[in-house]
């Protein structure tokens, strides 16, 4: 989309559309974020503690220098060692100064350095392998002073807020300078990962299996808050590869108790699995005495060490083919114990660097960026889950043990860090009342984010007259009488809920394998006219699920509900009731609605709620695309939603086809309600902090373009808010008596928009759900655009109420329903991309780089069948 701005008229031109509705001043073209419209007052006050610690910053200038290290592309760890050596050896420049360094280009000092304007070039050496030094050339050049005086003025409200712009170039941002000072020493002592620091597990052991283990550490970041800077500290954990011999690593990956279980060469399936896990890891060799040379693994050989050959150049200039086993015997007098095992191939493939497994160790400190297995994820959650009081105590202990005020670099820059958690006053928002149906028209009032549906019926229940059961569990796993009992219990619960299933299933058979799904579904569609639902019983985690959803959602447009066989064998009213919630929503029913007279004033005119999410493939996977999902409400309650989904190039944050997606949803809204929405409320998930303005700029224009493409003067007011869950702010009750549940969390509905919020921008924290396990994480909302002029109370209450409209459970959830649905749609699209011709539990994913599957093929793979387009197939 081409975007032009006319400075004479203040009009933006989007492609072929002239957007007179976006008449902007030159300053507004930069899309400055809306100022906070005031503070919320609604709700019962609650005293809270937050894991933020005040940082007192001196009113002074610091001095920024650009560092250029050659050779470049070294890891930050090496860069830090180079700079530390430079500071130590060039006292004529640095004297007693203690500069701080970000590991890349920026170095700050508290006093200016005696360096010429053109800069200075320095030679630095680090100890290398075999007693040889590794030479580096460092260029040091003064860039500019960075004013903390101005930062203090902004925080105290005495000058403009531009200095707080987190999207300014990092190096000249005074907040970045503060961050670098506080991170300098931890970066030298621990293993940094993002904004967290980790240390190897010496006093504890938390294995995850598969050669992985849990490392514990802490998250640290600085943020501007009202009148002050805050240091956010949180406990953190992530998966690392265990430092161990590669032989043992292979045994863990392949689930072998010891290497003696593998007396022959690795089967090809084992080799592929092992290669997938070790490729890209660093190993160090043990056969060279004290010289522990390190290599990066690029492959695992197909042939064992006793057969794997490489061209060896002899002293006479001739080249002969030599096996790896023979070479190690002759060169190092090392008789391989496991010559039948393959070798690691290191460095570049064409260089023939082969290493026997038994001479290699996994290097410590390598974070696992690959996706954890389900079992590893479960073990990680168990190892890291802490009740809120326990987390609070651990964070306080972390800060006390860190001794920030004794840090020589903190002292150099005259900082002071308080070691008590900040106290804030929050408010507990009132929960909305929920209207049910049936004769009684019962109303439920949530308590701590939970309500009971017993004795109530759906607001609008669907009558099911024709349905089928397909059981992919074997008859031995799930007997006929068990199926009959499940059917009877489901019909009873559904009738009580106001969704009567009028008859026994018209089809109930046992089937096996993914290849059975499509022909069976086609048979059902062709044979049973008016078939409403297929209940699919699964034996566990299986590729059948992905195939059921692919065929049902994209190929034939048939509603499916999957049930695990364990829930069929042991039926419970709660499980069956949850099934009914999903089924009723899928088939067009309405489970409950917000009581109309309690809704905010935005409902007085037609309004559409949009939720959007972009999900990226796992780190390290460059083949899979990113998936974009946008959902839109289709009624006035809002209860019914439609979805639209796209694939786009991996790791793109901006939604590329948003104009078309929003246009589709606006048309569908009009078809459903016969109204054009006068307001659009857009909840956007999946945006990183540094991308706010870019994403807003592109996506706000795309929404406007969608409106103008429907009608020249169609100008609904747009409110665009970002939803953030990936942050480390945690809230704790000051008063023990206010704690809720076994985990001692804050009450559902707790909101904070003072003290720890942004000094000027329209943001707030809201914990809308009841914490079940571990410590509740409040969602952070930032309003990036607001044509509708929301007050703080109105937008916070609206957001909280939308968290109660999620159809899959009788609990409030952690983010508004439209944002949650967008996440579900994107997650479902991952299954639509799964290739059924694969023997793994999850299947393999289609990608734009393999087997001729181009972007058009990927787009078709996620295209929902027209019969399912207007349904909530994703619930």
Automatic annotation (TrEMBL):
Pfam name, any one: ArgoMid
GO molecular function: RNA binding
Single GO BP term: regulatory ncRNA-mediated gene silencing
Record's keyword terms, sorted: Cytoplasm, Ribonucleoprotein, RNA-binding, RNA-mediated gene silencing, Translation regulation
Cited CDD domains: PAZ_argonaute_like, Piwi_ago-like
Localization per Swiss-Prot or TrEMBL: Cytoplasm, P-body
Keyword Ribonucleoprotein applies: yes
Keyword Cytoplasm part of the UniProt annotation: yes
Record domain PAZ: where: 245-364
Major localization listed first in the record, in broad terms: cytoplasm
Domain Piwi: 533-834
A single Gene Ontology CC term: P-body
InterPro entries linked: ArgoL1 (IPR014811), ArgoL2 (IPR032472), Argonaute_Mid_dom (IPR032473), Argonaute_N (IPR032474), PAZ_dom (IPR003100), PAZ_dom_sf (IPR036085), Piwi (IPR003165), Piwi_ago-like (IPR045246)
Stated family: Belongs to the argonaute family. Ago subfamily.
Protein name in the entry: Protein argonaute-1
Species the sequence originates in: Gouania willdenowi (Blunt-snouted clingfish)
Gene: ago3b
């Amino acid at each position: 989309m081409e975007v032009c701005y006319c400075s004479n008229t203040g009009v933006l031109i989007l492609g072929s559309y002239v957007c007179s509705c976006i008449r902007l001043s030159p300053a507004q073209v930069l899309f400055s974020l809306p100022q906070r419209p005031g503070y919320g007052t609604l709700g019962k006050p609650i005293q809270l503690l937050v894991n933020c610690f005040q940082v007192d910053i001196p009113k002074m200038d610091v001095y920024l220098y650009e560092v250029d290290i050659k050779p470049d592309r070294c890891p930050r760890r090496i860069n830090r060692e180079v700079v530390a050596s430079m500071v130590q050896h060039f006292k004529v420049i640095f004297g007693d100064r203690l500069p701080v360094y970000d590991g890349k280009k920026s170095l700050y000092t508290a006093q200016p350095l005696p360096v010429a304007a053109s800069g200075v070039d320095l030679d630095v050496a680090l100890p290398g392998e075999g007693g040889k030094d590794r030479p580096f050339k460092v260029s040091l050049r003064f860039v500019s002073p960075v004013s903390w005086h101005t930062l203090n003025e902004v925080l105290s409200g005495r000058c403009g807020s531009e200095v707080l712009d987190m999207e300014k170039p990092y190096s000249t941002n005074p907040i970045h300078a503060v961050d670098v000072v506080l991170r300098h020493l931890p970066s030298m002592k621990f293993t940094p990962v993002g904004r967290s620091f980790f240390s190897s597990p010496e006093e504890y052991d938390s294995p995850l299996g598969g050669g992985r283990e849990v490392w514990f550490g802490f998250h640290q970041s600085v943020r501007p808050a009202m009148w002050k800077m805050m240091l956010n500290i949180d406990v953190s954990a992530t998966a690392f590869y265990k430092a161990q011999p590669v032989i043992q690593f292979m045994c863990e990956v392949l689930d072998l108790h010891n290497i003696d279980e593998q007396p022959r060469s690795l089967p090809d399936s084992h080799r592929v699995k092992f290669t997938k896990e070790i490729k890209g890891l660093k190993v160090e060799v043990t056969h060279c005495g004290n010289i522990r040379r390190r290599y990066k693994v690029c492959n695992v050989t197909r042939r064992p060490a006793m057969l794997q050959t490489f061209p060896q150049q002899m002293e006479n200039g001739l080249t002969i083919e030599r096996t790896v086993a023979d070479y190690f015997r002759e060169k190092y007098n090392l008789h391989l114990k496991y010559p039948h095992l393959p070798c690691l191939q290191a460095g570049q493939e064409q260089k023939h660097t082969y290493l026997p497994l038994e001479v290699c160790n996994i290097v410590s400190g390598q974070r696992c960026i690959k996706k954890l297995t389900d079992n590893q994820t479960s073990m990680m959650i168990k190892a890291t889950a802490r009740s809120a009081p326990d987390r609070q105590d651990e964070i306080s202990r972390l800060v006390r043990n860190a001794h920030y005020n004794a840090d020589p670099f903190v002292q150099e820059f005259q900082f002071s860090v308080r070691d008590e958690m900040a106290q804030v006053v929050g408010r507990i928002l009132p929960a909305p009342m929920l209207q049910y149906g049936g004769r009684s028209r019962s109303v439920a009032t949530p308590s701590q984010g939970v309500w009971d549906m017993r004795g109530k019926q759906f607001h609008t229940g669907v009558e099911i007259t024709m349905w089928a059961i397909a059981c992919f569990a074997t008859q031995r796993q799930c007997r006929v009488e068990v199926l009959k009992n499940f059917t009877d219990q489901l019909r009873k619960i559904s009738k009580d809920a106001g969704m009567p299933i009028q008859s026994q299933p018209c089809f109930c058979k046992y089937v096996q394998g993914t290849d059975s799904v499509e022909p069976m579904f086609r048979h059902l569609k062709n044979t049973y006219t008016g078939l409403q639902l297929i209940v699919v019983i699964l034996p566990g985690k299986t590729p059948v699920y992905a195939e059921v959803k692919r065929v049902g959602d994209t190929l034939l447009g048939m509603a499916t509900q999957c049930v695990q066989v364990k829930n069929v064998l042991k039926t419970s009213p709660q499980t069956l009731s949850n099934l009914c919630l999903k089924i009723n929503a899928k088939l067009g029913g309405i489970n409950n609605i917000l009581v109309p007279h309690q809704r905010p004033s935005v409902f007085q005119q037609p309004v559409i709620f949009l939720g959007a999410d972009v999900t990226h493939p796992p780190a390290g996977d460059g083949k899979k695309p990113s998936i974009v999902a946008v959902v839109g409400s289709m009624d006035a309650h809002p209860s019914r939603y439609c979805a639209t989904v796209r694939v786009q190039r991996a790791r793109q944050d901006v939604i590329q086809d948003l104009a078309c997606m929003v246009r589709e949803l606006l048309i569908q809204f009009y078809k459903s309600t016969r109204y054009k929405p006068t307001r659009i409320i857009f909840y956007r998930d999946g945006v990183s902090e540094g991308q706010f303005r870019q994403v807003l700029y592109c996506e706000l224009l795309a929404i406007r373009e969608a409106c103008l493409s429907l009608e020249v003067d169609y100008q609904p007011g747009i409110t665009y808010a970002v939803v953030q869950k990936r942050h480390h702010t945690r809230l704790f009750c000051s008063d023990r008596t206010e704690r809720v549940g076994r985990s001692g969390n804050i009450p559902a509905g707790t909101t904070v928009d003072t003290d720890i919020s942004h000094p000027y921008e329209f943001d707030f924290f809201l914990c809308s759900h009841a914490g079940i396990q571990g410590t509740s994480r409040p969602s952070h909302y930032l309003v990036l655009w607001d044509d509708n002029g929301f007050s703080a109370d109105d937008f916070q209450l609206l957001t909280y109420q939308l968290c109660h409209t999620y159809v899959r459970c009788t609990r409030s959830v952690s983010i508004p329903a439209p944002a949650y649905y967008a996440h579900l749609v994107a997650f479902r699209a991952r299954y639509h991309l799964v290739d059924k011709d694969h023997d793994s539990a999850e299947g393999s994913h289609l990608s734009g780089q393999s087997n001729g599957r181009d972007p058009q093929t990927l787009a078709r793979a996620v295209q929902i069948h027209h019969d399912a387009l207007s349904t909530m197939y994703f619930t």
